[in-house]
Design brief:
The structure holds two protein chains of two kinds. Chain A is α/β, with parallel strands linked by helices. Chain A is 41% helix and 24% strand. Chain A contains ten helices and twelve strands. Chain A is globular, with a radius of gyration of 19 Å. In chain B, the strands form two sheets. Chain B has a seven-stranded mixed β-sheet, sandwiched between helices. Chain B has a five-stranded antiparallel β-sheet with strand order 8-9-10-12-11. The longest helix of chain B has 21 residues. Classes of the chains: A alpha/beta, B alpha/beta.
Chain lengths: 276, 313
């Protein structure tokens, strides 16, 4: 399984990992970006740094990276403004955006790299509240893509600019999240066969789970939700999963819940929730 | 014995001394049910069930047996089992019979009180169920006289030495419907208390998990207890004044977790009726009853207290 949970360092993340990095000061994000890209270099991934602001400023962020100029000159690292990658100002289409990264990944593989590693500081992209739902869907789609392709990502969100609830929601769609501030206590992330629910879901976090379930990307006729690394779920959370299963079922999608630990299965028996 | 057709819920205590009287009081009742085509469920200990089955010979095939020592470990789980039986077999007022012996000599004092509450609530739970005749055997040799006296208060009908009569001291369904305020004994030894509010529930779960592990409770039961505590703490926040206090301690073979708050329980059968989503906190109490080895729920004037017991393996 991919790295998952709350972390305090951006180091040590692998080929398919996808980390959310909320930050309150530029230096802490810069440090994480450099650490994350340095690991990608060791893994022979092609590196990409996308962010708001002029390219010179973005490039300056990466100063601490060894041989920065050489990396850029060789094409091993691209530093790009958000508008080069994202439709800044227009609504983001998750599928179109996946296609952009798919092309970049295929390009990296064709040039002999082991994959692609992207740091994106996307605060400017989601400054408009109306853009956030589509963007949240994209994070889910991106996570799904990364689960089965050699792409790893570090997504920066400036908490000084963005509301806590949005950052908490979008963070919960990443398998790895920086331990910081207000977060929801679970993560709903992708693995090659479907979704994994990790962390803790109780009455207080069930509304977030309901919200995020509706924003996760479903394609095909079957979706597997894995609960094998779930730390806690109460009956509110379980009934929310059941309601989501019924909703998907009406759309012709079969949600299969697998890997539920014994105590979750016992709760389901007691609640009369269908077998998992 | 007159086992004529019954058109109401007949809740009857059978007083017997020794196995011979037990069988004399139960086997003809069961045989009548079998011959009359009435479904019958016998919820007694396995040894009692074997004795009954021996007497019945081949007729035992038509009788449903359930091990009361398993089913009734937490007495709050017994009414749901009878409800399931009524639902499965009692369509269109079809006459039903049952034998349920929830009280035996080595019940702990805490279990005994819960069994007595259960007996009282049966009158309420099946008040509107027609044609259900439930006989509850009480072993007068083994049980204290106070237990027999309480059985006379909780059963409208009594049966002894082959005769049946109405109980003069039956306390009625109104009594059962009142808030349950039987006193709880103050725990002894190391008692730890932790107040909580909405932000504190994850910390409660962590604490209970740690205590359960330290007590040597296995992974599965530990998670059951964590879930039970979390559910009731959530109820405290939603319906019990927004906060509460967790206390926990060891009581012999049990790890006990207690949640108290400022709520009230208006529905006397809360936690004993399979929830369908409409009841306030209904799922929480239902789950807790099903997950723990013993649950003591009180609705005092000062608020609700719920003690959850899980056996230390």
């Amino acid at each position: 399984m991919r790295e998952h949970g709350l972390v305090s360092s951006a180091g040590g993340l692998g080929t398919h990992d996808h980390a959310c990095w909320p930050f309150d000061d530029d230096q802490s994000f810069q440090r994480a970006a450099v650490e994350f890209l340095a690991d990608g270099r060791r893994l022979n991934q092609r590196l990409m740094y996308v962010g708001g602001g002029p390219v010179e400023k973005l490039r300056a962020d990466l100063e601490p990276l060894d041989d920065l100029d050489g990396l850029i000159d060789r094409g091993a690292l691209e530093v790009l403004p958000l508008s080069e990658i994202y439709p800044v100002g227009d609504e983001l289409d998750p599928n179109a955006q996946v296609a952009v990264y798919d092309a970049a990944t295929e390009g990296a593989l064709a040039q002999g790299y082991a994959g692609l590693r992207v740091v994106s500081e996307v605060t400017a992209l989601v400054a408009d509240p109306d853009s956030r739902t589509a963007y949240t869907r994209w994070e889910s789609a991106a996570d799904r893509y990364a689960a089965s392709h050699p792409v790893s990502g570090l997504c920066g969100y400036d908490r000084r600019v963005l509301p806590d609830e949005f950052v908490a929601d979008v963070a919960a769609l990443h398998p790895t999240v920086r331990q910081t501030g207000t977060l929801v206590p679970f993560r709903l992330f992708a693995w090659p066969d479907g979704l994994v629910l990790e962390g803790e879901v109780d009455y207080f976090s069930t509304p977030a789970l309901e919200r995020l379930l509706t924003l996760t990307v479903v394609d095909g006729r079957e979706l597997v939700l894995d609960l094998s690394v779930l730390g806690f779920i109460d009956h509110h959370g379980m009934l929310a999963l059941e309601a989501h299963r019924n909703r998907l079922s009406r759309q012709g999608v079969d949600l299969k819940i697998q890997g539920a630990p014994g105590w979750v299965r016992r709760m389901c028996d007691v609640l009369g929730v269908a077998t998992l | 014995m007159n086992h004529s057709a019954h058109e109401y819920f007949r809740h009857e205590a059978l007083f017997y001394a020794g196995e011979e009287e037990f069988l004399a009081g139960t086997v003809p009742f069961i045989r009548d049910a079998v011959w009359g085509g009435e479904p019958v469920l016998v919820a007694v200990s396995q040894s009692r069930a074997r004795a009954i089955a021996n007497e019945l010979n081949g007729e035992a095939d038509a009788v449903h047996f359930v091990d009361m020592t398993e089913l009734g470990r937490n007495p709050a789980c017994i009414i749901p089992a009878w409800s399931d039986f009524v639902e499965a077999h009692g369509a269109r007022g079809r006459p039903l019979r049952g034998i349920g012996e929830p009280i035996w000599a080595d019940r702990s004092p805490a279990e005994l009180v819960e069994c007595q509450r259960h007996e009282s609530l049966l009158n309420l739970a099946f008040a509107d169920t027609p044609s259900f005749w439930l006989v509850c055997p009480y072993d007068t040799d083994a049980l204290e006289s106070a237990v027999i006296e309480e059985a006379q208060r909780s059963h409208p009908y009594l049966s002894m030495d082959g005769t049946q009569l109405e109980s003069a001291s039956y306390s009625g369904t109104e009594f059962a419907a009142e808030p349950f305020r039987a006193p709880l004994s103050e725990p002894t030894g190391n008692v730890h208390a932790l107040p909580f509010d909405a932000d504190g529930v994850p910390a409660l779960r962590e604490l209970v998990a740690r205590e359960a592990s330290d007590a040597g409770i296995g992974e599965g039961r530990k998670n059951d207890l964590v879930l039970a505590v979390s559910e009731l703490a959530t109820n405290s926040i939603r319906y019990g004044g927004g906060h509460g206090v967790l206390r926990h301690w060891r009581d012999g073979e049990m790890l006990v977790c207690e949640i108290s708050d400022h709520g009230t329980i208006d529905e006397p059968l809360a936690g004993r009726v399979r929830p369908d989503g409409g009841e306030i906190g209904g799922f929480g109490l239902w789950l807790v009853n099903q997950l723990c080895d013993l649950v003591q729920i009180r609705s005092f004037e000062s608020g609700n207290v719920a003690r959850m017991h899980v056996r230390v393996e």
